[in-house]
Amino acid sequence: MIKLIILDRDGVINKDSNAYVKTAAEWLPIPGSIDAIVRLSRSGYKIAIATNQSGIGRGLFSIDALDAMHAKLNNLLLLHGVTLAGIFYCPHRPIDKCPCRKPAAGLLDEISETLDIHLAGVPLVGDSLRDLQAGITHQCMPILVRTGKGAETEKALHEQQNSLLQHTKIFDDLAQTADYLCALNDTATLL
Length: 191
Description:
With 191 residues, the protein is an alpha/beta fold. The protein has helices spanning 33-42, 54-57, 63-78, 106-115, 129-136, 150-160, 174-190, and strands spanning 3-7, 45-52, 86-90, 123-126, 141-145, 169-171. It is built from seven helices and six strands.
């Protein structure tokens, strides 16, 4: 059986920007995130990325620019012999109300179909409420990181007394998440 983890991109793997990450030069990994993906891969996880990229729909950058950002990520991982199971993105704006934009389930549907795997129990790591909500559509294990918009999301969930918090694991960053998931995987392997 495939062991999979789904990661949001901006704010989880790379630094986020309220002005949008528009070029490969602006795409900067969060310290420790590339190593975390490498460790997850070496622990036996396949890694897929599910990311909203409304900057395309807003005309802020092109698909070619997005491809260049993803090539930069893939090249950093290839230095360690790691390849991603796939990068799945929604180019639409929120007002387009498309079925692939998180919190809708479309990107996760695509991951499930492409990789031929049910996503129940699959860790989904994000920094926003919409990431967690998308994961719930497939009964994923919701994980919130405090990088990107994660600290703000955690605070808002606490203030709203949102029941999602009871089922969400919270870590400082992707590196700490990888520590947890790799240890969990090692324990499961021993059983």
